[in-house]
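Quick note —
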Amino acid sequence: MVGHQVIDSRAAYLAAVDKLAAGTGPIGIDAERASGFTYSQRAYLIQLYRRDAGTFLFDPPAIGDFSGLNEALAGEEWILHAASQDLACLREVGLDPGRIFDTELAARLLGLPRVGLGTVVEELLGIHLAKEHSAANWSTRPLPESWLVYAALDVELLPDLRDSMVDLLVESGKTDIADQEFAAVLAKEAKPARAEPWRRLSGLHAVRGQRNLAVARELWVARDALAQELDVSPGRLVPDASLVAAARALPVSKNALADLREFNGRASRTELERWWRAIQQGLASADLPSVKANSDALPPPRAWADRNPEADLRFKAARAALTAVSEERAVPLENLLTPEHLRRVSWQPPEPADADAVGNALAQLGARTWQIEATAQLIADAFVEVHQSDDLPSEPVS
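Predicted structure written out below.
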């Protein structure tokens, strides 16, 4: 690639596909979105690097469908850093790898203290990688040359980084663990849409009463529709705090809403009629939301001592046992076993709570084979110890 040209024509795209197909070894790939600027999570730049082929920067909105590139690279290993962040936007344009190497996840499994790409590259390759454009608005056109240089470096170093990590995984006996984790990232299904997405409003806990919540809901729906139409991040139109302030105040007129000091943001006045209409809909709605969201989420562990004391003891004992193994294996606790999985089996353990039953429960939750082998027996033992200590009399029997 010459001068970091962005590939934005079909002819240039097809030529790049041929060159990448003729390259050798795994493919370094990355995607840049415009999170915080746009409504969509689409990719606005996709970078690929392959040895004996070079670096290619693609403009996804201009190219559209990447299925031809996907077919040309089918069966090859794709290298990504924090793959779970990019897979959705890559799949959206037809790029769906069958096999990956995740350098961020590998760094975690290797016990590196920090796992950002720049830090890992510097530690393992001795190269300083500037990250000054990571939070840029990548929907900008034309993209500045300095951004393109940054984007190219992100992928050009991935094959060398991957090779270094492969050696370290072999030395530490973690190759199979890494393979299982990479496969799990690929197989993970997208989260289903939330039943009540408006409840994610920051500060909603301060809104009391069903009528106030109905107004908050209608304001959120109105803002979301406008943000989607304009492809602008919702918070850039009217911040969450403004919607919450209006829902708490319940202004009685459009002028009262305009006079509400806390109701601000770049679209708070230009779209005032839209917001006032939403408030009216909330005030008139017969569909009042419940004060508390319907959820199967567990209470936070800090509340367990009061809500479920036995579960609290089980969780603390099992977590202490797993923490020791985490340190021994140099694998972060959250990677040794997903925290939610430990919370679930602690809150409602299987009967009987032996290693096999705990292992089956973890498998149903989505734990990998290596995680179950490393943790199930320890968790079961911790549960037994808690149960036995519970059964002991508080005072010696004479």
